[in-house]
Amino acid sequence: AAPRTRTVPDPRAPADFVALSDIDPTILQEMRYFTPHNFMGEPVDGYRRPMCLLTRPAAQALHRAQRRLLRRGHTLKVYDCYRPQRAVDHFVRWARDLDDQSMKGEFYPRVDKTRLFDDGYIAAKSGHSRGSTIDLTVVPLPVRPTPPYDPARPLTPCYAPRAERFPDNSLDMGTGFDCFDTLAHTLDPRIRGRQHAHRMLLKDTLERVGLVNLPEEWWHFTYQPEPYPDTYFDFPVSRASLTSAPRSDAGPS
Ligand SMILES: C[C@@H](N)C(=O)N[C@H](C)C(=O)O
Ligand SMILES: [Zn+2]
Question: What DSSP designation does 228 have?
Answer without folding.
Answer: -
